[in-house]
Every structure is written in structure tokens, then in C-alpha cells.
Amino acid sequence: MPDNRPSSTYRVQVRPDFPLPSTIEIVDYLADLGVSHLYSAPLLTAAPGSEHGYDVVDHSSVNPALGGEEALLGLSRALREAGLGLVVDIVPNHAGIAVPHLNPTWWDILRRGQKSDFAHFYDIDWSRGRLLIPVLADSPDALDDLRAEDGELRYFDKRFPIADGTGDGTPREIHDRQHYELVNWTRGDTELNYRRFFAITDLAGLRVDDPEVFDATHSEILRWYREGIAQGIRVDHPDGLRDPAGYLARLREAAPDAWIVIEKILEPGEKLPAWPVDGSTGYDAMCLVNGVFVDTGTEAFFDTLDHHLTGVTTSWQDLVHQAKYAVATGSLAAELARLADLAPTVEDAPRALAELAACFPVYRSYLPAGSRYLAQARSEAGRRRPHLISALDQVTARLRNPADELAIRFQQFTGAVMAKGVEDNAFYRWTRFVARNEVGSDPARFGSTPDEFHEAAWERWQEWPGSMTSLATHDTKRGEDVRARLAVLAEVPGDWTEVVRRWVRFAPLPDPSLAHLIWQVTVGAWPISRERLQAYARKAAREAGTGTSWLHPDESFETALRQMVDRIYDDPALHREVADFAASITPPGWSNSLGQKLLQLSMPGVPDVYQGTELWDHSLVDPDNRRPVDFAERRALLNRIDDGWLPPVDATGAAKLLVTSRVLRLRRQRPELFTSYRPVYAEGRAGHHAVAFDRGGVVAVATRLPIGLSRHGSWGDTSLSLDGHSWTEVFTNTSYGGSRLPVAELLHTYPVALLVKE
């Protein structure tokens, strides 16, 4: 792989309310912060009003809602003048079709059907008849609202083309002659005949495995690369592709010197395939860093509390299986039916395929690699459904063959089942300790030890030194500082048990598991506005799907939910108690935040800073984590720090900005200090409260389990053994000498330190 990696990136959610011209205005701040590359959300033309850009409708142009080509060139000039580069987010798996007339390829398919020059652009099963478009109201008379106007069929504000020579007659008669059929919106999950992104009918799957489709959808992006506008590429959702390895090989051939990372979510212990990329987008690093700040010794307390609150004992594995099977046979039933059609001679094929997907231990395999995961799924499926053994054996024999169409499509299917079943359902239902309910994490693993951290970090340095490391993304369920504060609960299980048992009685909810989730999020994000917490609670409840859901909202349950949240704000005693408890875990939460930030920024890999997280960021799940960022505040605080201000660890978050800027600048200015990895162990009675490593001239030191440390009284005789050189601590600009450094002295000002060998 070419050694072209950034020293660090900064993720900016470029969107209509923060377009490219606004992004240009923060380039000087990002340069001062210390990053080497701006990492942008998708920039191609997306559906009108898109706040994320993942619903591309035109692959040939820069989104005019973001400022268009001229603004992109302006950003490129500003970045070049500041000595920065650009990493762009691209979306090869799907395209937006919610507004058909704005997507020229989709519009032509609707007008001309299989005769369209673009019929092969999308993953459509033409053998099942007309292309089903699920947009009609849930009414048998919905087609009565069709209109024929200006050579198009209109359904309220939706427009559809009319094929040549089919425009005579009533709107219904015209509709019945088209290459598409407008159907009830509820049929999208069960009868659709085009592949979607997960269960989103407005995002149609592309066939980028076809060289012509690849060229058409990547020509503009690759032009940016060839002209030096973009130096890096982030690939969205490669698991949805028919042939990820082939796609990435073609992308690497087209952009040989680009830094390429992929949004590949690895389960704990899973290895990234040996693809021609620089690595993943860092969810595995996030899981690793978060886990080392959790006290693994209190897991039994939370098991007991969860059982007391819910009245049941459910294993994570059983809940995941249940959720994934429900998704496979429910919201992804159309995809399951398409799979089953490929195995017409297998009795019970739909149930066997659904069971295998529900038991699949990772997002997908990449045959022939990863066949062991299929073997694990087959074994577990046979244990759970012995009456399906014959069908399981028949389909498994075919799923082992990389050339079998059933095997190809099953690999695309399992990732969607995992994402929808686990991230968007089980994470909201299994709530014993939600600091670990995060993308890329296994909530059944309560935390991780320093030794586990060091082993995994060393492997990253050896195998994927150019892989991204992250603490927050637009897809994370909670902001990094929410997770850091929630980790404190593992150190005070008795205190948490006492207050939450009282709160659930005082402000009850019919779903006790969901209630426990909301109470944890409340103290983790406090102070949080009523409106934000209400919005989060409703989304969490609908994702959990136990008392209400997106498809069938239950007004009585949602009323009870609103009343529960309102009581937090309207009852003075409860409000005070919540605020007091949150205040008690906030300072140790700050310590965890600084510690995890230091580890993520200095460990092997390319660190990314998600927009705004250089200060405390207590965001919740999307869209909460896309809220506007006050860059003027951050710029002013950074200027004060650069003028010599040593900020305290307090509510301003400036201490986090100090840590972030100093590590990023050091990585950019002196990359030779970050070329190896060696664990550094503290000696003394409180040695296990420190996690430290040497990157080859830079030693990072962080405090873990700060409440436990305070119970020790202090660091006492704990010290670090270094190599006898003189060292400068970067955050305080303090010099140290000798081979043994007292940790109490080193961490007197901040709970973290960064030592540079003089």
C-alpha cells in the first residue's frame, strides 16, 4: 500500500445548512487544530433537502445545494493554501429514488423498462414482472388519486414518466400500461423486486460490479482524485455490494495513491479481509478504547439490576437471534423471498435461510474467505431448529459455493439483517449497561482490560497502520462523552441501583427495559433539553419495537413515554435528584473522556475527530449528532490556549481541546515519533489505574477507573519506568528526567499526559 495516509482527519457534515462555502470558512481553524485532512460527508447531488447526502441522484455533479462545482474548487484552493487535503465520502451501494425525475437513470428505467440503457444499473429482478414502486396510501382506492398531467402520471407531489405511446385513456388505464406498478407503501417490505439499502425503499441498490456502472457512478469522484481535489476516499457500506473485493480492487486501480478506508463494521475478534485498502473507519478501535475505561468487575451487579428491573433474564445471544430473525422475515421479507426463489427445490427454504441469517455471527462473509462463519451459523441453526436440518444442509451446501447466485445474494443479505436486527433493534432492547451498546461493540462483553487493549493495538500497528480510528461518527448511538460518563456507572453500581430503582417507581413506563435505557441516557447526556430527550425517547421506543414502532405507532404507549420524560423536568424533586446524580459522575466522566481521546488520537492508525468533539459533546443518536457546531467558540478557546492559557478540567471542555490540538499537531509535525508500539506498565499499588504506551518517542498515559483511584487515596508510589532520557510533557510543557516518573507528579494537572523524548 502507498504510504499516503493522513496524519489525522476531521469529519465535517457538509449539508445544505452548512454547505461548502461555510466549510471553507473553518479551514484555517482545522489547520490550527492540527489535522492534515478535512473528511467530508458525500458531495454528489443528492435528493432535495437531504441532510446527509447518502441518497445520491446524480453521480455526475457536485450537489448544487452544497454550492456546486465552484464551491468545491474554492474549498480545494483553501485547503491547499492551508496545507490540508480532502477525504470524500462516497456511496457505491445505492442511489436515491424518492424523487424519480431528479435521478436521470431511474427515470429512464421507469419510462422504458428493460429496454432502458440503464436497466442494468440497478439490482432489479425483472422476472417478477413490472417494477413495483411502493408509494400509494394504505387504501384500496389509492389509484383514484392518480392524475395525468404534462405527459406524466402524478400522485399528489410524486411524478412518474409515461412510456411512449401509452398516454391515452384514464390515469388508471395509463398506469396499467407502464413498466412500473404503483402499489401500497406497506408492500415495500414484502413484495419489492429491486434491492434496497437495508429496508429503505427510497434507496435502490446499484450494480457497481458492472464496469459500465462503476465508471458512470465514479467518474466524477475519480476526476476529483486525478485533479488533486481529493486525496482520500471513504467507502460507505461495502457489505451491501455483490463483490466487495472486486469493487475495491477496481477502485484501487483507478486511484492507486489514494488513502482508502471502508465502512466495515467488524465484530470483536473479526479480521478485516486482505483487500487493497488502508483499513476500516474505526469502529473496532472505538470498541477497544471505550472498553478499557469500564470496570469489568461489576458486571454481576448490572445483571442483577437488569433482572430486578425487567423481571426476566434474557441472554444477549438469544435476544439478537430473535431480533435478527424478525428482521429477516419481516422488514427484509422481500429480500428473503428473492433468495428463496433461487432455491425452489428446497422445502422450507425461506425459514432455513432466515435462520442461517439470524445465526450468522458477523455481518457477512466474503467467500471463499469466511466460510467458517457459515459453518458456525449452520451449527447454531441446527441446534435451534432441528426440524429444519434437511433444509439447512441443502442451502448450506450451495452457500459454500462462491459462484452460486444464492451464495452471492445471501452474503448481501446477512449484513442488512445484522444491522437492522442488532444496531437498530436489539441495542434498544437489551439495556443492562448501554455504554457498550455501540456499533462495532458486543454488549455481552462488559469491558476490556489494559492487556487486551495493548494486544489489539499492537495488532493494528502490525496489520493496518493506516486504518482510521474513531470515537464518534454520524452512526454512533451515543456521543463519545456520553459513553465516557456512562462508563462511570460501572464504578458506582450500588449508587446507580439505588437511584434508578427509585426513579422507575416514581416515573413508571410499561416497558422497564426501555425505561432503564432512557434513565442511563438521561444522566449520560445531562443537562439535556426536554425537546432533545423527548425526540430520543420516541426514536428509541420505535426502534425497540416493543411498546410502539415506526410502522405501527402506539399513541397510548407514546403518551406514557412523553409523560415519563416530562416528569423529569416538571417534578422539582426528581429534576434535582437527576441533576445531582449526573453532577456526581460528571468529573470522573471528564477524566474518562480525556483518557479515551488521548488513546484514540495517539494509538496506531489515522485518528478522526468527528465535528465538534474537540469539546465535550453529549450528542445522542442521529439526527441529534448532526446539530450545528459552534466553530467560533472553538476557535476562540484554541486561541486562548495558544496564548498560554492552561484550561482547567471543567464544563468549558477546553481541556479536551488542549489534548486534541496538541496530539494532532504532534502527529502532523513529527510523524517519526509514531512509528512503533510498546505497552508501558505502571508499577505500584495503583498501577492498574494507568494505561500507557510508547509509540516510538511519544508516551501516552491515561487514567482509568478514576473513582476507584480516588478510593485508593492517590497514586501513592505508582511510577512509570522509561528509558532514562529527558522527557517533555506536552500538555503542561513540563520537563522530566530519570528512568522512573512518579505518576502522581505526572498527572497532577490533568488525568492524561503525553511525553515526548527530548
From TrEMBL:
Glycosyl hydrolase family 13 catalytic domain boundaries: 13-662
InterPro entries the UniProt entry points to: GH, GH13_cat_dom, Maltooligo_trehalose_synth_4, Trehalose_TreY
Cross-referenced Gene3D superfamilies: Glycosidases, Maltooligosyl trehalose synthase, domain 2, Maltooligosyl trehalose synthase, domain 3, Maltooligosyl trehalose synthase, domain 4
PANTHER family: ALPHA-AMYLASE FAMILY MEMBER (PTHR10357), MALTOOLIGOSYL TREHALOSE SYNTHASE-RELATED (PTHR10357:SF216)
Protein name from the UniProt record: Malto-oligosyltrehalose synthase
Organism for this UniProt entry: Actinoplanes flavus
